[in-house]
Amino acid sequence: MSALHLFSWLTLVILYGGCFLLSWLHRHSWRVKQQYNLIFQGIAFTVLDALDQGFLPKISQALDGMGQIAKKQFLNIQKVIAIAITQNIQDVLILTVILTFAVLLRFEYPWQELRFTNPDSYSLLLTTRQILAGDVNAQMQSFPAFSALAAVLSLLGAMDAMQVIRFLSPLLGCLLVLSVGYSMGVITNSRIAVMGAMYSLGAYIFTSHIEIPQFVPNWIQQWLNTVTGSLNTSLIHQWAGGDLEIGVICLVLGLGRAWEASRTQHRRIALIDAVCCLIIVAIIQPQLLILALCGGISFIGGGRFALTVVTIIWIVLALALALPENPWGSANTFLVTLPVGLSWLWGLFLTLTSWLLSLILGVWSEIVSLILMLAIAINFLLPLPPKISYLEYDMAARKTLELRVRFPLKRWVIVAPIEQLAESYGAGWYEDMGLFVEKYSSLVSKPNFHFRYSVPHLFIFVEKRPLVTGLRASQSLPYSVLSDPTYLYYRSSAGRASLEFTTLQMCETYRRLHEQDVAIYYEDQDLRIYQVRLPEEL
Fold it and tell me: What is the residue-level pLDDT of the chain in tens, covering all 538 positions?
């Protein structure tokens, strides 16, 4: 339906309305004619009664009835909330604080910016658009779980895939916080462990700018820089996650459900849930099955013992992979997901602290531990401002999505940096700016030259002030990266500035020679978009 452009908001209304209609008919044994007669008779009697008594009394009576029903429901909800708050007021307040930090941290930047904060998000967007267009790449290394989920939500919600990914990633970050708290609560049966683990990951207390002493050996300095750099970078993954976050969520939930399968009465349901979660982990991130295997074996010694073993193994693997020239290759799955292991460690530490304080404070040990945790974390451990390296101007992303809506399908081509490929894929054509300059820089000065494309509209995105991506050239980068066209044209500040300046000169030269065919589609202090009307004949 999407390929035929039949999937729109009207299709969704008909589809969802049809589902409710079929459900209603099923409840009434598919007696369509009988139900139609009853409805028609009811409407007819209501109209006749209204005509006989007047409309105003009936309307007033209907409004009073609706008001009474709404008031009754509101009172019931108010009673339920009051009971919950009076019985667990401490837990409600602390959970409110934790979830507030988690939501604000993960939705702050996606809410403000349409462009992505993580380069990996553009590859996820491209894969999602390929799935929607039916151009799935058969050479994919792993199953694109995140892109498949984003494609389904894009179709069901009739939303652009970029908007879906923009809010789906931080939503997964919030679900990961809830999953960590659930597994910690199920396995340890400790309230303070749940609060500590959820808060440490929700507010992300793992960023640091530690100055490493110069007398430390070089390999230790490199190792510490890798660990702290990964933890600081993982802050962006809290609102820019992907397949790895889905795998970790399923791992955490799988361990929790596996423990419940050995303890609760509903073992069959819990076991099915655990198996399904581990199957998803095996499909998305099979490396994480090491932790699932260690946790399953350690359950013999009890829940807290198993959680301690999994946490220690998680941290050890992450730190071992951070060693320079490690023998296991460059896999960084455990290092990127290290904050989850550290959140479990924080929860276990608070459990031990609460037990030690209970020897002195008795029943007040938990609340004292929670207050101290929140006070210390809020004053000293809140996350540092992230170092986000944007790859495009936000208006460039917004105008690309605008072109998808305003212009016919496959009837326009865009010349821009590589990020616009994922944003325009499936609706328009894309020409790399570097290749565009190489092909036409020597031809635009000829009066009889015209750009030749098999579409009527050409849009050229030129940055008047070349974007500084924040990715500086480094001697540690291999020659293959430094010589790569993507790095040379778009990641290197000097290369990007040179390319944008050359493109601007080309467009102005072509505009001077073909004034009737060139217009400014959009312009601000940073960006200018040229719209070129192309000749119909090739």
Answer: 555 556 556 666 777 788 887 877 777 666 666 666 767 777 776 666 666 665 555 566 666 667 777 777 777 777 766 655 555 666 777 788 888 989 999 999 999 889 998 888 999 999 999 888 887 765 566 788 899 899 888 887 778 899 999 999 999 999 999 999 999 999 988 888 888 899 889 989 888 877 777 777 787 888 888 888 888 888 898 898 889 999 999 999 999 999 988 887 778 888 999 999 999 999 998 989 999 999 989 888 888 899 999 999 999 999 888 887 765 554 578 989 999 999 999 888 888 888 787 777 776 677 777 777 777 777 667 777 888 888 899 999 999 999 998 998 899 999 999 999 999 998 999 999 999 999 998 898 888 888 888 899 999 999 999 988 765 544 455 555 656 677 777 888 888 899 999 999 999 999 999 888 899 999 999 999 999 998 765 4
* The amino acid at 355: W
3-state helix, strand, coil in the chain (%, to 5): 70, 5, 25
Distances (CA, A) of 417 to 435, 437, 460: 10, 12, 10
From the number of C-beta atoms within 10 Å of its C-beta (0-12, 13-18, 19+), residue 471 rates as middle
3-state secondary structure of 533: strand
DSSP for 196-249?
Answer: HHHHHHHTT---------TTS-HHHHHHHHHHHHHHHHHHHHTTS--HHHHHHH
- 242 phi and psi angles, rounded to 5 deg: -155, -135
Report helix, strand or coil for 483. coil
Distance CA 530, CA 463 (A): 11
d(CA 519, CA 510): 11
User: How would you classify the pairing of strands 527-533 and 518-523?
Assistant: antiparallel
